[in-house]
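User: Here's a structure from my thesis project, written as structure tokens. My advisor, Dr. K., wants to see whether a designed sequence matches the one we expressed. Can you design one independently, without my sequence as a hint?
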């Protein structure tokens, strides 16, 4: 009898120097998503947003040339949206048309779930700051957890920089 793999979640909390409404838009408006989606050095050339419960957004991150320059697509299928408070979605790796792909078959490290549940919470801190927590559920290896956490941290660094430019 084989043991079930241990599930570990990625949890990152940040305080941004931006009001909740602005941080919310970073997740809901395509031109905002394209400013921060993808780790350092990656770009996001496309974000087709269908930001509503039951909707599915398709986002693309492009690797820098030194990493091959390839595009990676994800869908975000929204389960719950509580304006300016909470977003819950399932992230899937997909092709450019939004057809689901198996992360392992794409050459990703083992331990990345096929359906990655995300919960993002937003809380006002004073008049002009926002505490945001992103939780990604269900990783089954330390390597997959650590890779995802590092990528998320870099994305949130880019998100913070986008607020500084606004």
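Assistant: Designed independently from the structure alone:
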């Amino acid at each position: 009898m084989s043991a079930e793999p241990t599930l570990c979640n990625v949890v990152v909390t940040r305080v941004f120097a931006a009001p909740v409404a602005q941080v919310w838009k970073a997740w809901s408006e395509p031109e905002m998503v394209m400013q921060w989606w993808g780790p350092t050095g990656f770009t996001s050339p496309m974000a087709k947003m269908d930001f509503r419960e039951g909707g599915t957004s398709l986002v693309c991150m492009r690797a820098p040339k030194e990493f091959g320059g390839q595009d990676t697509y994800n869908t975000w299928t929204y389960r719950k949206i509580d304006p300016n408070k909470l977003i819950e979605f399932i992230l899937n790796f997909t092709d450019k048309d939004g057809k689901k792909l198996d992360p392992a078959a794409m050459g990703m490290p083992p331990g990345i779930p096929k359906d990655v549940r995300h919960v993002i919470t937003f809380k006002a801190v004073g008049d002009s700051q926002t505490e945001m927590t992103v939780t990604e559920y269900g990783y089954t290896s330390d390597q997959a957890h650590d890779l995802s956490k590092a990528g998320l941290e870099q994305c949130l660094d880019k998100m913070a920089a986008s607020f500084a430019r606004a």
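When you compare it with your expressed construct, this may help: Residues 8-165 form a domain with the Alpha-D-Glucose-1,6-Bisphosphate; Chain A, domain 4 fold (CATH 3.30.530.20).
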